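[step 3/7] fold_predict: job queued, chain A
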Amino acid sequence: MVLLNLRLSKLWKLERVEYANQVIKIVDEHDPEALKISDMYNLLVARQPEIDQLNVRYRAHPMTVSIQHLRSLRGLHISNILGRLKLVRKEKGDLDGDVKLVRTEIDRHFGNFRSSKNEAIKIQKVDKFNTAVEASQELEEALSELGFTSLMNDLRSVHSRIKSNSELRNKSIAARPQTKTNDLQKAVDDSIVNLFTDIRLAMLRNPEINYNPLIADLNKVTLNFDNYINIRIGQSERKAEEKAENENGELDNTTPVVESTEPAGRMMSLNAADMNGDGEKILPANEKKTIATTSNSMQLPLNDSEAKNDANTN
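[step 4/7] structure written:
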């Protein structure tokens, strides 16, 4: 019995995972030690971590939604601070010492906060503002005197949670396997090919062992997956044919434009261009001369009286 090969390169990622797992299961059921193919079988089993990685598809990190919510709250707290600044300016005026000091720092860090290029710049603006407050007792007292303390505490709390959650998310993403999918697939494919080659060699080395039950089970699985590939290829070919037929149909439905073999100027010369105002045809000068000569030669002879008068006149 012949052991069939599968077009592994044609498998989709999850199909490859299922095929590899079924091959491992079948070989294990037939006792690879007794069939003397345990070495290559164990190498395929050792690829189980790579097989499992192919089965995982990462999407948006689960912490991303909560971080986005915290960023929205941060923007709200900064808007509250800017609103409070606008109110105290109306109440105390821009010349008040505390107002001038507070306004300078708030405008410097939060005046164009929403237009910041990215999240890193926004984090730095809040950090720098907090550092400025901690470094200046005068600024901290002015903020407290003008009623900014609770607003500042709200901002600090949300900002701290944004930084800690972002750090946790980055660590989680960094812990993901970094091996590329193509490399994983190649490693699994190579292990399957090596196992199948070892089975064929074992059949030659050990003619006394019956490998037919193993080969029959493996061929059955291989044919099933080969059928998946054939169906997929057939569907792709039909779609390509339908697309080509639709394009050809559009070309066939296009009405051809029939062009005259006579130039437009020539057509005019045979019609209105050759007619004078009285509807008579205008002839070229050489044609006029020929017609006049022919007309004179065909003129009827004069009668006797007319001939005499003409002679007297001459």
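[step 5/7] annotate
Confidence is low (pLDDT under 50) at residues 260-283, 287-314.
Residues 212-252 form the longest helix (41 residues).
exit 0
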